Amino acid sequence: VQLVESGGGLVQPGGSLRLSCAASGFTFSNYDMRWYRQSPGKERELVATITPVGDSTNYADSVKGRFTISRDNAKNTVYLQMNSLKPEDTAVYYCNARPARRSYWGQGTQVTVSS
Predict the structure, then answer these.
(1) Strands (DSSP E) along the chain, which ranges?
(2) What's the mean pLDDT in 38-65?
(3) Which of 20, 27, 26, 18 lies closest to 4 in space, CA to CA?
(4) Above 90 in pLDDT, residue 10?
(5) How confident is the model at residue 8 (pLDDT cuts 50, 70, 90)?
(6) In whole angstroms, what is the distance from residue 86 CA to residue 52 CA?
(7) What one-character-per-residue DSSP string does 86-102 give?
């Protein structure tokens, strides 16, 4: 299993970024996908979850109404559209998959929100 995140960077408060996570090594369309984030000194936090066919999503209260998780099963890719970014969104963002009840992580992508 391999998960490769991309799309992070430096953005001003109020700006937007779109993260991508390309998955391989398992049947992507059979599993929920998740985005987590971790800031220095804090525990890793679940940000968003999407079901295998994308018909249901869930979000942390801190990002509801600003972030949107989506997926393209033809491309084995999950996305996180982040709008109205705030300094407190600064973190390393990770995608996560749990095929066969084992948890896999990507290497993470840094998102920094600063003026």
Answers:
(1) 2-6, 9-11, 17-24, 33-38, 45-50, 57-59, 67-72, 77-82, 91-97, 104-105, 109-113
(2) 97
(3) 20
(4) yes
(5) very high
(6) 29
(7) -GGG-EEEEEEE-GGG-
